[in-house]
Amino acid sequence: MRRVGVYVDGSSMDVNGGHMMRYEVLRALAGRAGATIQRLHAYLTFDERRAARSVDYEARIKGYQAALRDKGFRVTVKPLKHYADADGAETVKSNSDLGMAVDALSESDRLDTVVLATGDGDFVDVVRALQKKGCRVEVLGFDNVSVELRDTADQFISGYLIPGLLPVRDSVPGLPAWGQVGSRVRGVCNRFEPDDGYGFIAFWSSLPDTPLLAAAETSPAYFRSSSLQDQSILSRLPSRNTVLEFELALPAKQNGAPEARRIQVVSAA
Please, what is the Cα angle at 269 between 122 and 148, to 5 degrees? Predict the structure, then answer.
């Protein structure tokens, strides 16, 4: 039985594209293919200065922390530190990274797979240390993910592509579930024929349920170049680093791939 530990740099996720990430979906992704989740950690920050000025902020943040605990996560909260330079410009910083690294390394002897939800390049050495201890390391992130971190991990997972992990942009009540005709999903263009003005977008039609995530397990959606709302992106296709969000429509041909319409660029690393 594959044993998994999950470590989420919550503050980094929030400011780098993962705001409103659904932790229950992350938990399901980590536990795919019958894996046993041994550890679930979330590392958050708390701005004491802001809390002193706003009762609403304190109540909202503490409610959020309680909701994560209800989902099975052990929540570690670190105060946000405010620093001013010689010119009076203020920056903020949290020291959650060290605690997250220590927990992952100290618990790794009882884990087969470690999922790090972060884009911070400071974790490169942590990834290497976990790998030397025999752990497979998966890094999940959204925007501004360190290239070295992506390359060092056994696998990088774009959080944008995981069904239901992040709300779609045009989400409205009654919208069909991800993967159904009429729903909005996200994927990456893996084939584009500029002379003919068409291509294909690979997407997960449902939450993956295999130990290793492989591109061969995705579904294809056909698109016309005219369906892209930002035509300037066509020069970059195909691209594994450009995430597209689109509406799934019925196939243009019988037994063909569903058609992608109203295509938006979500992230272009």
Answer: 30
